[in-house]
Design goal:
mainly alpha; 2 strands
Length: 497
């Protein structure tokens, strides 16, 4: 039953029982073998909740009319959260624009890709930079689209762990949710540290750009790293109420930065490469075969879309999260592609010396300089990028709930939701775990051949090590993890809003 269709729900609870429907967070879970959406329901709707009179619906308008008294308050969103086993603990201070600002400030596709596109040049030259990004966009959007539908059905700050607990079979739900929850947390730690590290490396690279004899010591980079952490975390501790406005400002800063840099690149370039330069193959120097190198390049380009689940984790701080969270997630992808792809087309058409870019300690600044022919302008562009600065485990957690959903059946697993993909959702749910498996495997390969201790890719070692720690936590602390209890009747009643 999709949103907008007539819903006929009768609540047998009266008086105190009706009030408990919205106020009791410890109701039993739905029977595993029953379909969640196929129950036979009478045409008359009676709903009881604290502070409101019962509403009878004789016009066939379903639960939408039954919940009308809650339309101008946060009660409906809080009731939907309570149906998922959680009590509202945070104020809903984020607007839809602030949610988008948070999501894109984490992803920042054009800035993120500036940090690692040099490796794509190694894999296959400009062709891999441009077309690898195109394929990466299709891959990540497929994963994000399916995840956003699940987020619409179960809007919760818990995100992937919460989805996994609800969707997994009873026998495995505690273990699966525990593992996915820790993987999500570790993934966010990694991507946060990665972004701050890029800021530190970029500052050191700009100094070396002006003073070639300068070689930043590790302790100097670490000090810059710590300073970046303090600056980026300051708003959370000094002025937490301003965070929604702060992330909106970050969104504006990023998009305006793209516009300024893109226009400057187009206006200042004195040389344009022919189209054959972009499409030419055989320019890779990684040592891998062209096919393998190309797939590795796509995996590297996925970094441009790291953290697309950011908006999910403020689901309890925004009104109508079932609608606004999927919208923010997919707009993050849309803005990301609309900024990253044109920028790198301009960069690849304007570059004059690929070898100099590859040998530079900061490839993005070197290519800015080649196009602008001005150290001052290149520094200005790079400074804007560094200000905006302020992923493998995450993608695994995006795929796990979708894989469970595909195997257990969408019709019996998903309640009513504002964002319903229909048959497209099934395609996303099937492709997501397959794509993550394929590219996750390639991401673990070393970036160049022959392999040495210096260029070795230690990603698989880290992944296995962290997973071992998670298993250790499960066997030592997992018994204390219970998970939320779901009221499927209330979840369906409050789902379409």
């Amino acid at each position: 039953m999709a949103c907008g269709q007539n819903a006929s729900v009768t609540s047998p609870r009266h008086g105190a029982e009706g009030e408990a429907l919205l106020n009791d967070a410890t109701v039993p879970t739905h029977d595993e073998g029953a379909s969640l959406l196929s129950e036979s329901m009478p045409a008359r709707v009676k709903t009881f909740w604290s502070g409101h009179k019962s509403v009878a619906n004789n016009s066939g308008d379903g639960s939408e009319l039954a919940l009308e008294p809650l339309r101008d308050s946060h009660d409906l969103d809080n009731a939907h959260l309570r149906a998922q086993g959680h009590e509202a603990a945070l104020k809903r201070t984020f607007s839809p624009l602030a949610a988008l600002g948070l999501g894109f400030s984490v992803t920042n596709s054009w800035v993120g890709y500036l940090s690692n596109f040099g490796q794509n040049l190694v894999y296959g030259g400009p062709q891999n930079v441009v077309f690898g990004l195109l394929v990466a966009t299709a891959v990540q959007w497929t994963i994000t689209l399916g995840l956003s539908e699940v987020a619409s059905a179960f809007p919760s700050a818990g995100g992937q762990y919460h989805f996994t607990f609800i969707l997994a079979p009873t026998k495995h739900k505690r273990f699966a949710a525990f593992v996915v929850g820790w993987m999500t947390l570790l993934g966010w730690w990694v991507i946060t540290c990665s972004g701050v590290s890029l800021c530190a490396v970029s500052v050191a690279g700009m100094i070396r750009f002006w003073h070639e004899a300068f070689e930043a010591a590790r302790w100097q980079i670490y000090l810059i790293y710590l300073a970046s952490v303090v600056l980026t975390a300051a708003p959370l501790f000094l002025a937490p109420r301003t965070v929604p406005r702060f992330v909106q400002a970050t969104l504006c800063l990023s998009v305006s930065g793209f516009v300024v840099i893109f226009c400057m690149l187009l206006g200042l370039k004195k040389h344009t490469q022919p189209g054959s330069f972009i499409t030419r193959s055989g320019l890779g120097t990684s040592g891998w075969s062209p096919g393998t190198a190309w797939v590795l390049g796509v995996g590297n380009a996925l970094y441009a879309y790291g953290g697309t689940d950011g908006a999910i984790h403020i689901a309890e701080e925004i009104q109508r999260p079932g609608k606004n969270i999927p919208r923010a997630m997919n707009l993050t992808m849309a803005i990301g592609f609309s900024t990253a792809f044109p920028l790198f087309l301009a960069l690849m058409f304007g570059v004059t010396d690929i070898d100099a870019v590859l040998n530079s300690s900061l490839p993005s600044m070197q290519i800015f300089y080649q196009i602008s022919q001005s150290k001052g302008i290149a520094t200005f562009m790079m400074c804007w990028v560094v200000v905006v600065y302020y992923i493998l485990y995450l993608n695994i957690t995006y795929a796990v709930p979708q894989g469970i959903l595909a195997t257990r059946g969408r019709k019996k697993s998903l309640p009513e939701r504002p964002f319903d993909l229909g048959s497209v959702g099934l395609v996303c749910n099937i492709l997501a775990p397959l794509l993550v498996t394929v590219f996750g495997t390639f991401i673990c390969l070393p970036p160049q051949l022959p392999v040495t201790t210096i260029n070795m890719n230690y990603t698989p070692v880290i992944l296995v090590g962290l997973f071992g720690i998670i298993l250790g936590l499960w066997f030592t602390r997992g018994k204390k993890f219970i998970g939320p209890k779901i009221d499927w009747e209330l979840l369906n009643l409050t789902g379409c809003k």
